[in-house]
Design goal:
The complex is a heterotrimer of chains A (265), B (760) and C (154). Chain B has 760 residues and is an alpha+beta fold. Helix content of chain B is 26%, strand content 24%. The longest helix of chain B is centred in the last third of the chain and has 28 residues, at 535-562. Chain B is globular and about 80 Å long. The longest helix of chain C has 18 residues, at 136-153. In chain C, 63% of the residues are buried. Chain C is an alpha+beta fold and 154 residues long. Classes of the chains: A alpha+beta (265), B alpha+beta (760), C alpha+beta (154).
């Protein structure tokens, strides 16, 4: 059972950062994963008094506080429009509304969980994270880093004209994904597919060979699916084996491409 | 006779209390100040506890006691809730020095707070001598590794058990010359079907609270289906007389058979008996998933012989059942895998049913809705579907040619005759509901998905013939309302209401005039408990009997008040009337008179047991939408037609059916049980063991095709268990019709549909 | 830590342990409708409203509810009786253990979306597990209630 000695509702990011330098401290996001641990936390740091629970829409981006709930993301009309509806699609399978009212974007991203739908979606969307000390870096880079004691302040999602599709397969409807993928392509950016729940952390595969540059067709979608599947490493866990995940990566990336190309997979 | 209460969709008596969240469950009504009881569980699948160092744990403030194998009584018992002498072997101790699966209790810790107990558990130091374990149930029989090498192991019944061979039971039965019949068949289908140790996963985990009452007796309040068996088992386990124990149950948060085994009770009972302090144990979900009483894993080998014209002539079925570390329900569940699958086919000239039930070093199995029939029916119904495919005969048609009919004798079902059987109508009805003719076998949609259908039939029993006892005490109170006391346990099924409906019907009164009280070993008449689909059929008949006798007593009392003979008096539910004089006396007056200078108790108790166990029947059909590229299966619709005899409460029967089907869908598609190499269950939470959500079950449609069972109350048979039996074979059949692949192991997850090559 | 939580309209002040979960805080204060069915935030039995939003009280620290408003089924008895009657008429309450969580989340759904479609109902309530009913009876009850409610409104 998780035990917590002290609870501090941080009054500033600086205070939160200072407290978090101790190994026995923990930032609490939605508490959902932390609760399941048997950790003995000396100081639990709550960021909920710092105004990080808002989604600010700016001209070229969304600035999303780390304490924004998954449910807020799911219901935000601007995000829905900007992500082609894929934001809702990546979230709606996650346990239930009550869970998503608690789970935070910060918790989902900072945890860099292998199974994360959220990490997969935001990576494909070209998100950046803003760290209290580390400043702004791409989510792709952040996801590859080991966990440290910095604080994730917000996530910046660029608004880029383009299309996006989220696809996942689950053994049952609200389970973790067996494999998840998001493909985004736009006027200013080449297509890229993020593949998550491999079961390792999501990774980004860019269309470096311009497979889709001449347009999305059945054939190019198929090819890019195969390309992405070849590029990623998959593994086995209790939900499925590596071989099937490879296969799924190909199918789901292809389908995502077809969807953004206006063809149903 | 026009029925007023029976066959009506009466609201459950406790419905509004439950829906408005009233505190009626164990943890809500337990007294304050109970010691928290938890157990330390073995991390090894097979080991000897060499030493438990309790010193540090005992020093934790608030710790009341730590118990190990050295502290508990040495006589073995079974935790299976069954009628004495139990077929399940006496192979348990409260704590055993020999721990036999990952999760087997090593020590009991009791303390004032959960925090203290958790801390003490961490501080217990245990030295184990780790032994090699037998984890594969196919290798258990006659293995060098013995799960129960001890000489104190004992089997009370001749079930073919031998602990020195890892055998919990074995046996064979049959009729006709099976080998000759099979040899004479045009076609043989022979395969092995594997089902796993699925969890009941009722929403309320196992829990028990114990106190010492004012007479110094052990007072046990438990979330159980079987108060009387719990009393005996605790008496056996603690070595104290039954007279010193009282067991009762509050409202139960689901059971499905899980609570037909004494999973939690012995630990707080031991703590309270030793400390004389109130204590409570609440299983975590993890404990409920890993140290409880799931379905028996079974491998069923089926050989079906038929002629080219579709005549099914012989079935040879062998079941290998895995009872795990202990033998609860091992010898009995296995029987149903044959006795409640083979009789579905009335055309058989011969059959053989043989089985072995083996001990292994995994969690011990128990009773789960369907109780072996589910596993056997998955196997046989799948084999018959495979036969239909081989013969090129529509599987619905094949069944019509061979299924059991009303009036037939069923050699594989203890020679019982079907006095009520509407299986033929069930199959027709289900086919109509799903549109079998149009949909069989498949069609391909524009998006590449395949829509296909599948079918299965099922049967079960209604109580255990010649064993189960149902009883009812009916008492008339002063205002003329009745109290019905029962020992059966309403676990959400609505039996309190159903039995009250029957009583209301018999007593010709509104159902509001019947109050129900159960189950309490001190107050209730003896009832073997709510399991084996017995309550409606067995206890229902006891209610009928009790009502008839109470009516006589009321008539006698009324006639006495009217100063006339009973032969000229009549009771119509409201008044006793003297038919000659026309004078009458009301129930209220009779009730009041019975409490002044009366020598006649307006209370009767009746028991009932049945020499037969009439099977309910059912047909189920699944329509699925299968995505061939990903293997994803979406259940579109499930159509079921059930013959449970007279439907006592259409609403409750319907919801029982829908609920059972949903559980069957989970079992077919994703409820998995996997072990690590060291015998640890991976699906140890509701995060990993996925039960269906409302997005996973499609549209479930249920209709009833009633027969009339002459031996049942108002013609009723059972419904509780049969409803889980059809989804697995029907869905697997639909998957075959979509993909051409037979899946003979459950669950069929998407990965398998894409990746497995399946032989034809 | 000293906290003040408004539970069903009543202010409760208490010195709460930092790791006390909201579910245990609520049960200790008589809100026994709040049930626990798992340890992994999966079952939905412990659903309560926190500042009007349905959340899993097993996954919220009591200290985090400081200064906030919590509603449990004890505080929504009228709504529970009105809506619950429709579930009762289906016999879909069954063992009843998951009912309070379902009632809470259904009430949250009705507040957020008074006329939900079937798919919206299923998706909103997907986090409320029930092992007894197979969900069909719950759906029939919800739809009957919504139809009745619509009749009352118009």
């Amino acid at each position: 059972m998780l035990t917590i000695q002290n609870y501090v509702k941080a009054e500033s990011l600086e205070q939160a950062y200072e407290l978090n330098q101790k190994k026995s401290s923990r930032i609490i996001g939605g508490m959902l994963w932390l609760k399941m641990s048997r950790m003995r936390v000396q100081t639990a740091i709550d960021l909920s008094g710092l105004g990080l629970d808002t989604i600010e829409e700016e001209e070229d981006s969304f600035r999303i506080g780390s304490m924004v709930s998954l449910r807020q993301l799911e219901q935000h009309p601007g995000l829905a429009q900007s992500t082609d509806g894929s934001m809702r699609e990546c979230l709606r399978h996650i346990v239930g509304v009550q869970f998503r009212n608690l789970a935070t974007l910060g918790g989902s991203i900072f945890g860099r969980f292998g199974f994360s739908d959220v990490l997969t979606e935001f990576m494909a969307l070209g998100a950046e994270v803003e760290l209290y000390r580390g400043g702004r870096i791409s989510l792709e880079q952040f996801a590859a880093m080991p966990a440290d004691r910095d604080i994730l302040v917000r996530v910046i999602l660029p608004k880029e004209p383009g299309r996006c599709s989220y696809q996942s397969l689950r053994n049952s409807s609200t389970d973790f994904p067996v494999l998840a993928c998001a493909v985004c392509a736009g006027e200013n950016r080449a297509a890229a597919a993020a593949v998550g729940a491999r079961p390792g952390r999501a990774v980004l595969v860019r269309d470096e060979e311009g497979i889709l540059s001449a347009g999305i067709t059945e054939k190019s979608a198929e090819e890019f699916g195969a390309y992405a599947a070849a590029k990623i490493r998959t593994g086995s866990n209790m939900r499925a084996g590596a071989g099937y995940r490879k296969h799924l990566a190909q199918v789901l990336v292809k389908r995502a491409c077809l969807e953004i190309g206006g063809m149903q997979g | 006779m026009k029925l007023k209460s029976v066959s009506q969709p009466v609201r459950k008596k406790d419905a509004m209390q439950l829906l408005t969240g009233k505190p009626v469950y164990l943890e809500d009504v337990a007294p304050a100040g109970c010691l928290t009881v938890k157990v330390l569980r073995s991390p090894h699948a097979n080991a000897i506890v060499e030493e438990v160092n309790e010193d540090a744990a005992l020093k934790v403030p608030g710790i009341e006691a730590v118990y190990t194998w050295e502290d508990v009584p040495r006589q073995r018992f079974t935790m299976a809730g069954q009628t004495y002498p139990e077929p399940s072997p006496y192979d348990r101790l409260i704590l055993d020095r020999h721990v036999r699966y990952v999760g087997d209790p090593v020590a009991i810790v009791a303390g004032e707070t959960e925090k203290a107990v958790d801390q003490a558990l961490k501080l217990l130091k245990v030295k184990y001598q780790v032994l090699e374990a037998v984890l594969d149930f196919r290798k258990a029989k006659d293995s060098d590794i013995l799960v129960h090498p001890e000489d104190s192991w004992k089997s009370l019944c001749p079930v073919g058990a031998d602990n020195k061979r890892n055998l919990c039971a074995s046996g064979e039965s049959g009729h006709g010359e099976i080998d000759a019949v099979l040899a004479d068949c045009d076609i043989i289908v022979e395969h092995t079907y594997h089902t796993k140790a699925c969890q009941q996963a009722m929403m309320e985990t196992f829990r028990t609270c114990c106190t010492i009452d004012l007479y110094g007796r052990l007072n046990v309040l438990s979330s159980t289906q079987i108060v009387f068996h719990v009393r005996r088992i605790l008496s056996n386990a603690l070595g104290i007389p039954k007279s010193g124990i009282r067991v009762s149950k509050p409202r139960i948060g689901g059971g499905f058979g899980a609570k037909q085994t004494v999973v939690a009770e012995v630990f707080p009972a031991f703590v309270t008996w030793m400390t004389k302090k109130p204590s409570m144990m609440i299983f975590t979900r993890q404990e409920s998933q890993t140290a409880s009483s799931p379905r028996h894993e079974m491998e069923v080998h089926v050989k079906v012989g038929a002629m080219k014209d579709g005549r099914i002539r012989g079935v040879d079925l062998y079941t290998l059942s895995n009872t795990g570390a202990y033998g609860e329900h091992g010898p009995t569940t296995v029987g149903l895998s044959g006795h409640k699958s083979i009789p579905l086919y009335g055309s058989l000239e011969a059959h053989r049913f043989s089985y072995d039930v083996v001990y292994t070093n995994v969690m011990s199995a128990g009773a789960y809705r369907g109780y072996g029939a589910t596993q056997g029916i998955f196997a046989l119904e799948s084999a018959v579907n495979e036969l239909a495919a081989k013969l090129g005969i529509d599987p619905v048609e094949l069944r019509k040619r061979n299924m059991v009919r009303e009036g037939q004798v069923m050699p594989a079902y203890y020679g019982e005759q079907t006095n009520s059987c509407a299986l033929d109508r069930c199959l027709d009805r289900a086919a109509e509901m799903i549109g079998w003719k149009e949909k069989y076998p498949r069609r391909v949609l524009d998006n590449g998905h395949v829509r296909s259908v599948g079918v299965a039939m099922a049967m079960q029993g209604s109580g255990i013939s010649g064993v189960d006892v149902g009883s009812a005490t009916l008492k008339m109170n002063e205002e003329g309302y009745y109290t019905l006391r029962i020992g059966a346990a309403d676990m959400g099924t609505g039996c309190d209401t159903i039995l009250a409906q029957m009583a209301a019907e018999c007593m010709e009164c509104p159902i509001e005039n019947i109050t129900v009280l159960g189950a309490d070993t001190d107050a209730s008449p003896y009832d073997s408990g709510s399991y084996a689909s017995s309550t409606t059929y067995v206890t229902g008949k006891a209610v009928e009997k009790a009502c008839a006798r109470l009516r006589e007593k009321i008539l006698e009392t009324g006639a006495e008040l009217l100063s006339c003979g009973t032969e000229q008096a009549e009771f119509d539910g409201s008044v006793v009337a003297d038919l000659q004089s026309g004078r009458s006396v009301t129930l209220k007056e009779i009730g009041t008179a019975a409490m002044c200078g009366s020598c006649r108790a307006l209370e009767v108790t009746e028991s009932n047991s049945s020499p037969i166990s009439p099977p309910p029947f059912m047909a189920g059909m699944a329509e699925i939408d299968l995505d061939p590229e990903t293997g994803h299966v979406e259940l579109v619709e499930y159509a079921a037609a059930v013959d449970c005899g007279t439907v006592v409460n259409p609403n409750l029967a319907r919801v029982q059916t829908e609920g059972g089907i949903a559980q069957g869908i989970g079992m077919a598609l994703f409820e998995d049980v996997q072990y690590s190499g060291r015998g640890k269950v991976l699906e140890n939470s509701l995060m990993q063991y996925k039960i269906p959500t409302r997005l996973d079950v499609g549209k479930i449609r249920v209709e009833f095709e009633s027969s009339y069972e002459p031996s049942g109350p108002f013609g009723a048979k059972s419904i509780g268990e049969i409803v889980i039996n059809t989804p697995a074979p029907a869905i697997v059949h639909a998957i075959y019709n979509a993909t051409g692949k037979w899946f003979r192991e459950l669950p069929v997850k998407p990965e398998r549909i894409v990746m497995e090559r399946c032989e034809d | 830590m000293k906290i003040t939580v408004t539970v069903n309209g009543r202010k409760i002040q208490e010195d709460a342990a930092c790791d006390l979960l909201l579910i245990d805080f609520l049960r200790a204060h008589g809100c026994l409708s709040v049930k626990r069915g798992c340890e992994t935030s999966n079952c939905g039995l412990c659903t309560v409203m926190l500042d009007g939003r349905p959340v899993l009280s097993c996954s919220v620290l009591a200290v985090r509810a400081d200064g906030r408003r919590v509603e449990t089924l004890e505080g929504l008895q009228e709504e529970a009786e009105e809506f619950g009657a429709f579930i009762a008429d289906q016999g879909a309450e069954q063992c009843g253990f998951c009912n309070p969580g379902l009632m809470m989340n259904a009430i949250a759904l009705f507040r957020e979306n008074p006329e939900p479609e079937e798919e919206e109902i299923k998706e909103y309530l997907a986090g409320n597990l029930c092992r007894c009913s197979g969900y069909e009876g719950q759906l029939r009850g919800i739809q009957a209630y919504l139809a009745w409610k619509k009749g009352v409104r118009s």
